[in-house]
Amino acid sequence: MPGENLSRDEARERAALLSVDGYEVSLDLRSAVGDQAVGGAPRTFRSVTTIRFRCAEPGATSFADLIAPSVTALSLNGRDLDPGEVFDGTRIALEDLAADNELVVDARCAYSRTGEGMHRFVDPEDGEVYLYTQYEPADSRRVFANFEQPDLKAPFRFEVRAPEGWTVWSNGAGVLTDGVWQFAETKPISTYITAFAAGPYHYVTDSYTRTFDDGTTLEIPLGAMCRKGLAPYFDSDDVFLVTKQGLDFFHEHFDYPYPFGKYDQAFVPEYNLGAMENPGLVTFREEYIFRGKVTQASYEGRANVILHEMAHMWFGDLVTMEWWDDLWLKESFADFMGAFSLVGATRFKDGWITFANRRKAWAYRADQLPSTHPITADIRDLQDAKLNFDGITYAKGASVLKQLVAYVGQDAFLEGARRYFKRNAYGNTRLGDLLSVLEETSGRDLASWARSWLQTAGVNSLTPQVILSSESRITELAIVQEAAESHPELRPHRVAVGLYRRTPEGAVERYARVETDVDGPRTVIAELVGAEAPDLVLVNDDDLTYCKIRFDEGSLDTLRERLGDITDPLARALCWSALWNLTRDALMPARDFLDLVLRFAGRESDIGVLQTLHAWADSALTFYAAPDWRATGERLLAEGALKELRLAEPGSQHQLTWARFFARVASGAADLQLLGGLLEGTAKIDGLDVDQELRWAFLETLAAHGVADETALAAELARDDTASGKRHQVRCLAARPSAAVKAQAWASVVESDTLSNALVEATIAGFGRPSQRELLAPYATKYFDAIERVWADRSIQIGMDVVRGLFPALQDSRETLDATDAWLAAHESAAPALRRLVLEARDDLARGLRGQAVDAAAAG
Predict the structure, then answer these.
(1) What Å distances lie between residue 435 and 340, 374, 427, 428, 506, CA to CA?
(2) Does residue 676 contact residue 702 with C-beta atoms inside 8 Å?
(3) CB atoms within 10 A of CB 28
(4) Marked catalytic residue, from 116, 309, 634, 716
(5) pLDDT tens-digit map of 200-248
(6) What is the pTM of this model?
(7) Contact 614, 657 (CB under 8 A)
(8) 309 is catalytic
(9) Dist. CA 293–CA 84, nearest whole Å
(10) CA distances, 664 to each of 104, 319, 604, 696, 806 (Å)
(11) How far is 857 from 853, CA to CA, in rounded Å?
């Protein structure tokens, strides 16, 4: 892995020296089918690349990037080079460059099983082979030779030879001529957003047409694809509906027509990410095709991802950051625009509730880790870049953009975006390029704003202080702003402060709202002086800024008694999020948070919020509850989940959500018996359809408690002999409570590299069960002995999965914390990205121990 790294300094030096005129890439993928090569050698394909580029200093030395088992032939400016002398497995040395150069590389590149580069998947259902590529941040060099950095953009011409009967897709439109797929030349784009998909995909087409004010008409061919086995479940009509709504929305707001021709969307197997914005060929994980009944939150989530990737066509693809330091210039904008367009263009009008409750929770966690960083980050190399696809870059950045819209105004913000696209089309930018146009359109000096919000790390907390008169009127309401000692920046916040009170009918409703600026340690809100005494003060009402909301004691008392009576769903979601942050910060005992969930979650109308509450409740019990109270908490959660399951409207989304939560928390004999009965059909809950996906959810819990054995899981796989079924079975097999099972699962992930990325993920998910802490105890030591070797020997994606997923978080004791500290002290020279992952896990463990201490103290 270290030999594959590229530093920022190297990239800047190369960008100053070289400019690329174009690529011609020819791939022969016919080797994707047929017998595997003998002797354990990797399955490979031929990749021939011609790069035409200029050098600002003739006679200089540079390098091209290629990760491949072998190079057959190399030539530079017509001069043959010895691959053994100039190619080291990751780089091609280029010496004595001319002013104008032509590099030709004929290589054997390897198919991937880790989701990086050219991923090869064999469908267990019918034996069909499917290929797709995934490159970000730097894996196109696994498929063809190139200059792998975002600021060396160029047009690409691709051609592909594929097995007979296959279809091949790339960024441009393709035509099959004499057995060769030839694709239209792309616009100048970065290497990491070039793409291929190839195989017997099920493919559906549509088209989008828009006539602009000047009378010109734009027609975009639309396509959507998935594996043949998923075709019966593929609701392409809804995918196309959201796609067209998004294209309309962005054309209306961006005033720059979609620039990349066609718009295909591929739902592919064993995908590491949610999706990737390759222009003309967006790729998604195929789990967005729903095999069973799901809630509207799942459809909303898919729509959000479709729109997020579409926003990248402008923020990221048309205009690209110069280096990964400014990754936020694409990801933060796409995350913000995903929610902005979701609410503005589709049926999902509550998208900002989901954003406030789910996306920002991700940001708050990331921003309190020791690895937190400014939104404009210091990215030293590609390993740093890989890890910075995180809650800061996505969700905090999007939250800050929402604050920026409130600060400069929506019209000024969108006009700035329009100027940004037109000035920088097909180019690369830094922070200053965006700020300059926003200063033009808003008339505001954004330098200090950017320093506070984009160039410092950490999250502020805002707490109301209320002083009342004897007549129960507000005589002073102030907002106190605090910051962590490690990140002391106090930021300017544009906030709405809402006052809520109980109505005679029993509801809790807002009766006053003021939008104001909060700056410094204490800000008095003069506009609210004289208002009636509130039952609840909500500092960040309407979720305009990025902060942790705190409460005064009176407001907290109201939430403890009346949380479910808050009528506004966004306000309620913000309160839930604030209470979860109090729990994570060891300011509220976990048992108190769980009590709130048990009393009020059943009244939650927003299905996405309810699903998030279930996840938080699970985490509260697993990591923050005092160990000697866990058994009580397990029983209470299971009883509460079953109660709400039986009370839910038959056939409703809420019923399905409570059924999945009950399956997750069930542990007692009666609970397990009910799950088994629902599986076998001997038990029934009116309206609950136990489809295949729900069957696997029930089976995972039964397997984890030793009720469903290997034979039962094999029988279920026979019933669902698909790629999805195989992933479920592998997870269930690893979940069984047996020392031999755990040893086998550990070996298959840590000691072997034969599993695909999807099956590694499934095995890790099944391995660590909260009910099996004692069984997993021996693996704490094994973890620290193995991780440096795993990081060195495996791909960065698998390394991340193992280091994150197998950290002994369930061995939540001072001894585990000490062992983590000992490893960090003894491995100061380990790869920075590896140390970052261990430091993050250590912080989560320490946070959990602090929460457990507070929860234990609450017992009296």
Answers:
(1) 20, 16, 16, 14, 48
(2) yes
(3) 15
(4) 309
(5) 999 999 999 999 988 899 999 999 999 999 999 999 999 999 999 999 9
(6) 0.96
(7) yes
(8) yes
(9) 55
(10) 55, 44, 19, 11, 20
(11) 6
